[in-house]
Amino acid sequence: MSPRPVIVTGQQIGAGWSPALSVAKALAALAEARRTGGEAVYWLADEDHDRAEVATVAAWNGDRLIRHRFRFDTRPGTATGWLPWTPAHQAEASALWGSLPEPLEPSLRGHVLALGQPLWDRGLRPFSPTDPAAREPIQAELERWRSLGLEALLRQQAAALEGEGAPLPLDPRLQAAWFSLDPHTGRRQRMEPGAPLPEGRWLSPGAAIRPLMQSLMLPVAAVVLGPSERAYWRLCEPLWDRVGLAAPRILPRPSVYVLPPGVRLDPGQLEALRHGAWDRLATWPGPLPTGLFRTAEPDLSWPETVQIRFRREQERSRERLEKLDRRLHREAVTRALGGDPERLRQTLFPFGVPQERVMPGVPWLRNGDLLDAILERMKDAVPLMLLEEP
Fold first, then answer.
1. In terms of domains, do 163 and 187 share one?
2. Has residue 1 got a pLDDT over 80?
3. Do 167 and 289 fall within a single domain?
4. Dihedral, CA atoms, 109, 35, 379, 225, nearest 10 degrees?
5. CA distance 370 to 375
6. Residues 155, 272 within the same domain
7. More confidently predicted of 369 and 228
8. Does the residue 361 lie in any domain?
9. What percentage of the chain exceeds 70 in pLDDT?
10. In b/e form, how buried is each residue of 91-104, taking b as 16+ CB within 10 angstroms?
11. Which end is more exposed in the chain, N or C (fewer Cβ atoms within 10 Å of the end residue's Cβ)?
12. What's the domain range around 285?
C-alpha cells in the first residue's frame, strides 16, 4: 500500500510562531490535504540559523505596537532548533502575549511545538528534519548528491533567471550550497566545495537544495509556498532530474487579514487603506473646506516682498484646509467601515507591512474559532481573504 501523498509547508521556527503567515501556510496545507485525501505536514525549519529573524517579534502594548528581540546564549551559527528556551524566555513571551503553554522541551523548537498544538489537533503533523531517526538514514544519499556537482547547475540556473529578469532572493554564486551541522550542539558551518565533512557532523543543504531534501525525507506531492519561496524554488528546477526525484506541485500561499469585530471592508479597498487614501474609500457628502477657499491675486502696487508673502500665506492656508478635507474624509470612512480607518490601517498594516508578515501567530493559534473560520474559507482555495475576528 502506497503512503498517502504529503502536502508540505513550513517556516523557520520563530518565537511566538512569528510571523503569522506561518499559520496561514499551515492551514492552507491542511485544507489541501483534506481536499485531496493526503496528509498535511508542517516542516519545522529548525536547522536554519538566522537568529535575528527568529528572535525579533512584535506585540501590542496598549495602542502602541512594539518590537522585541529575544536573546539566546549560544554561539553564532547555532541552528534554531538548538536555541534554548528557558523560564526567562517563557516569562518574556508571556509578558508580550499573555499566558502561554509550557514548551515541550527546553528549546525554541519545544516552544513552537507547544504553541502549534491547536494545529496538530486539527490534523497537521509537525516534522523536524533534525530528528536523528529521520536524518541519519539519509546522510549517505546527501553525500551522493554532493558528489554530483549541483553547485554548477545552481549557478547556471541563477544566470538564466537573471537573464529572464526573474527575482533572485538568494544567489548560489555567493551563498553556500552545503553546510555541516553538529547534531549535538546545533553548530552549522559553511562548507566549501570539495572540503571533507568533519567527523560526527551531518551534511546540511543550503536553502536552494533544501526542497530536494524534503522530497527525500517525505513523499511530497505538493508544497505551499509564499512568493519569495517560490522564487528560490526556481533555482532547483534543473536539480530534480539530476538527483532522481520528481518535483512536487507548488501551491501559492493565500494571504489572510483578520479584521476587528464590526469592521466592513472588502479586498478591493486594502491598497487605499494601506496608503491612507481616505478619499478613495469614502468622501464627505457635503462641502469641503478647500471648496470654500477663494484665492486672489496680490495688489501689484504692493512691494514685491509683500506680494510674495501674500502668495505664501495663501498656499499655507490651502495646505491647512486640505488637512481638514482629509479629516472629513476620514470621518466618512469611519461611518462606512464601522471603525476608525487609521486604527484599522495600523492593525492590518503594522509598520506599513501586511499584518501576517509582522505580527506573531500566537493570537491566531489561541483562537480556535478563528482557525476554523480560516480553514473553512480555504476550502475554496481563494488567494486573499478578510475575516472578522470571532
1. yes
2. no
3. no
4. 50
5. 9
6. no
7. 369
8. no
9. 99
10. ebbeebbeebeebb
11. N
12. 265-338
pLDDT (average), residues 348-365? 95
In whole angstroms, give the CA distance from residue 57 to residue 360.
Answer: 7
Q: Mean pLDDT across the stretch 50-75? A: 90
Helix spans in the chain (H): 21-36, 51-55, 87-97, 108-115, 117-121, 132-135, 139-146, 150-164, 210-217, 227-233, 239-243, 270-274, 278-281, 304-337, 341-348, 355-358, 362-365, 368-377
Give me the chain's average pLDDT, please: 94
Q: Are residues 15 and 44 in the same domain?
A: yes
Nine-digit cell string for 136:
541519519
Q: How far apart are CA 352 and CA 323, in angstroms?
A: 21
Q: How far apart are CA 366 and CA 180, in angstroms?
A: 37
Domain shared by 28 and 156, yes or no: yes
Do the Cβ atoms of 205 and 236 come closer than 8 Å?
Answer: no
β-pair partners for 6: 39, 220
CB neighbours of 289 closer than 8 A, spacing ≥ 6?
321, 322, 324, 325, 328
Total domains in the fold of the chain: 2
pLDDT > 90 fraction of the chain, expressed in percent and rounded: 87
CB atoms within 10 A of CB 364: 24
Q: How many CA atoms lie within 13 A of 59 on its CB side?
A: 18
Look at residues 121, 115, 127, 103 and name the one whose alpha carbon lies nearest to residue 44.
127
Q: What's the pLDDT at 169?
A: 84
Q: Any residues with CB less than 8 A from the CB of 314 and at least 6 apart, and which?
A: 295, 296
Q: Which of 256, 275, 298 is the last residue before a domain boundary? A: 256
Of 177 and 52, which is predicted with more confidence?
177
Query: Is residue 373 a part of any domain in this protein?
Result: no
Of 4 and 275, more confident: 275
Cα–Cα distance, 208 to 233 (Å, whole number):
7
Q: Which residue has the higher pLDDT, 177 or 63?
A: 177
| Between 204 and 232, the higher pLDDT residue | 204
Q: What is the pLDDT of residues 207-220, one digit of tens each?
A: 999 999 999 999 99
Q: Are residues 81 and 151 in the same domain?
A: yes
Contact predicate 175/50, CB 8 Å: no
- Grid cell of 172 as nine digits: 548560489
Q: What is the CATH number of the domain that holds 20?
A: 3.40.50
Average the pLDDT over 321-333 and give the result. 96
Kindly state whether residues 146 and 277 are assigned to the same domain.
Answer: no
Which domain-ending residue is among 338, 357, 378?
338
Q: Are residues 245 and 283 in the same domain?
A: no
